[in-house]
Amino acid sequence: MAGRDLRTLFSSNDRSIAASEAFTNRQAQWQAVTACLAEHVRHVARTDFDVEDLEAPRHNILVFHGVGGIGKSTLSRKIEASLAHSEHRPAQWESPSYPEERALPVRIDLARAAGMDFERVILAIRLAVAVLGRPMAAFDLALRRYWQHNHPGESIEDYLRRGGLLSRFSAAAALPQQMQSALSDIAQALLLPGTVGSALGHGAGVLVKALRERRQSVRALAGCSRLADLLEAEPDLEALSFYPHLLAWDLAQLPADKSALPVILLDTFEDTGDRTHRDFERLLQRIVWLMPNAFFVMTGRNRLQWAETSLEGQLDWVGPSAWPGLAPGDAAYTRPHASNRQILIGDFSPEDCEDYLTRRLSRDGQPLITEPVRRTIAERSHGLPLYLDLSVMRYLELRRGGRQPQVTDFDHDFPALIARTLSDLTAEERHVLRSVSLLSAFSVRLATQVAGMDHDAPALRLIERPFIRESSSGVWPFHIHDLIRSAIRNADDGSDDRWSQQDWQRAAERAFHALEAQWRQDLRHDRTVLVGCLHQGLLLARDFRLDLGWLVDAAFQYVADSIWEPLALPSVENTSTRGLQTAADALVETLSAIARRQHEHRARTASRLSAVLASGLLPDELVELATYYLAKAQRGLGLTGDSRQGMQRVASAGGRLASAAGRGLAHLSRLSGDFPAALDAAGRLGWEGRHHRVLGDVWWLQGDMYRAAAAYLAARSEAEQHGMAGETAMSQAHLAFAVAFTDPRRADDELDLTDQLLSRLSLRSTEMTARIAALVRDAGYAADLPDRAAVLLAEIGVSGISYAAAKLHLTLCFHHAVLGAQDELEAGIARLRELTRSGDYAYYVEIAHFMADLPLPAETARARWIDGEQRTRERWRNIVTTRRERFGDDRG
Q: DSSP code of 18?
């Protein structure tokens, strides 16, 4: 029943269900096979190729490795079938570029359950060659001698029949005759009396003597330089492992039109032993090395280590010079191409998962599993074929219970995934694996600390496993395959060394303190280290209800520079349904709300932070953090009364954000138009309160752009000295804004620098300031400025940053004033008056009148200008007339 999935077929009484073995894509792996085979054919066809050369590096191998259940054995079987019969090749697999009829594929399953010992491996390879119908004289002589010595009284034919090999290989029955033919030829050439067996019995010495003397009677074998040595050696397993050299020599003697390309597929290679016991692996490596004209495709869980010099003494040929294609290099070594012989088999793509589930179970040509269920299974599988297979069996099991499986039935982890993952790990490796499953990423050092070990060896061995993925980005290079990690953390673990809840709790505490140590030892204050430690530490504190400890200090460092890297914590999405339950929950929600305010409406930020404060879960020192950023959000929404109360509470508490709250109060004074009070407050703020930037915010409103630019430049320089990238970018954007009023050409350079500083940050309000500055630069020049302003205004509406909308409309009034467009200017002033009805930013209405030298209506609210209304009016009017003159000169 080729192509039938018997296990699924026997899982249901419903005979209308078609249960087919689904093979999906793997086109890239097939391309790697055909490319390497084509290269191999060219190599052995070269005039300088010598099958007896035992020193040349070997390129006759291709390794596919990957996590258990990824589809390695299925791929191995499909490659064998495709090479043996082109009609069995999947439609998406292209034809190879070498003569297909020359390929002699043989797949050997090395799994312990298959009972494959070394003798059977050798026999399987010889039986695959038997299809050529020709004796392999040198090899057959040595094999007959070995057999008589180790299997007295049992013929090879009886052994093959008893072991099931006769039925597997079509030409197996011919092997005894081929071997007898070789022996008969030798006996006749040496004129040995008696039976054929005498050729290797009493006449073995005669044959060896004839070979060493290179007599004419044995000229057909005399060219095999090492045959005599092998016939003289004790015919034990050690000698048998060198006989493949003879088979390679025999194959090389075939005429060109009768030549063959043995393709030997060794599957489940991980079952040949472990990293300490490599006896079987050593014997198999000899086959590969001694048969350079054969091609080997290995599949197993682990990367072959043959290119590592540390294995000298355990294996016969090691190092990158012996196996160039197996040496680990950069990330490219996981990509299929002809020069790379060690390929990690990746997960199925979402499309492949859909294809697998669609074709695996069907009825009347239609998929049995419904589309929503297929989509859920595919998403949870993370592309692992074993999960798809287990889900199919679960689907049938649920149907047997008398109901139609639903999407919710597949929010499920399978213990079988754990069993497959842990099966070939040592006890120490399993301990480290469970420990690091608490982390989304780790290093060897971190893994050792989390496991509570005093030596790195288990972690070093673990990172070589295929379910450990490596990435050059981020703080820590390694992470567990997502599905394997989920299964280890969540599924019922029935193994003998499974962990109790107390074991998990102790591991979480070790991990928490290891992350603290890594963060505190970061002398460079690297933001990626901070965010990485904060992200993982918050999840541990939440999941295991740990005290916040060092997370408090880390949280304040996170907000200090206003960079707002996304934390992407899973709990954020669930707080609406599960609610805030722990201090960690509250801190996660606080930091998420603060970071997300760059991408969410300020009303959403205010709502989230208000809910955190209402929960009462935050410790006192973090209450000021939530209160301060709530007050900032309220200021952005125009709720200045609420904002002022929050800022005053934080400032009076004298905590870490007292200076920042003082700056907030200065901003609120500026919003109300009390500029002398804002100027006085700025003088008391110092660096912590960003005094220079506050001064710049006051001076540009007075129309004193040169003093404002000087203040912003000082703010930028001070921020650079303190290494504060976020503050540097904010000060630079405001500098560009101030310069744009008086010097559009210089503004180009300042805006370019602003873009560079913002390129690696997430500061939405600062980005809007920069875009408004670009409009100021182009005011009076660009005909499309109103259209550009309309686009930006729509984005501001989404963000809920009210002050940005008022500043943008002030910029439009500047544009209209320069052009002398009276109607548009009056409409702009009316819009400004509407936006500032609450009293905040009401001075924008005054400034718009100053620009056009218009009298102020009697009902206009008046600001307290630093040096009086008239001087301020003159400066703003001068900015407009200067721009108008420059515009006229440029136009002329």
A: E
Is there a contact between 221 and 211 (Cβ–Cβ < 8 Å)?
yes
DSSP 578-604: H---SHHHHHHHHHHHHHHTTTS-HHH
CA angle 685, 842, 887 (to 5 degrees): 95
Adjacency order of strands within the sheet including 61-65: 103-109, 261-267, 295-300, 61-65, 342-344
Query: With the C-alpha atoms ordered 426, 431, 434, 437, is the resulting torsion angle positive or negative?
Result: negative
What interhelical angle do 725-742 and 744-758 show, nearest 10? 160
Neighbours of 725 (CB within 10 A): 19
CA distance 544 to 749: 51
pLDDT digits (tens, 9 = 90+) for 727-760: 999 999 999 999 999 999 999 999 999 999 998 8
Q: How far apart are CA 394 and CA 8, in angstroms?
A: 10
Which whole-number Å values give the CA distances from 367 to 5, 20, 405, 599, in the listed order? 15, 11, 14, 41
Average pLDDT over residues 12-29: 66
Distance CA 844, CA 850 (A): 10
Question: What percent of the chain has pLDDT above 90?
Answer: 39
Q: Helices marked H in 164-243 — which ranges? A: 165-168, 175-189, 204-212, 219-222, 227-232, 237-240
Q: DSSP state, 478?
A: E
At the top level of CATH, the class of 27-115+261-346 is alpha beta
CB contact at 8 A, 144 and 235: no
The yes-or-no verdict on residue 199 having pLDDT over 60 is no
- Gap between the Cα atoms of 450 and 443, Å rounded: 10
Q: What is the pLDDT of residue 575?
A: 45
CA distance 716 to 731: 5
Assigned token pair, 874? 């003159």
Cα–Cα distance, 848 to 735 (Å, whole number):
21
Give, as one character, the DSSP assignment of residue 340: B
Closest CA to 699 of 730, 741, 659, 661: 741
Fold annotation for 670-891: 1.25.40
Q: How far apart are the first and last CA of the chain?
A: 88
Question: What residue segments make up the domains of the chain, in order of their start?
Answer: 27-115+261-346, 135-253, 347-412, 434-640, 670-891
Tokens of 302: 């682990």
Assess whether pLDDT exceeds 50 at residue 850.
yes
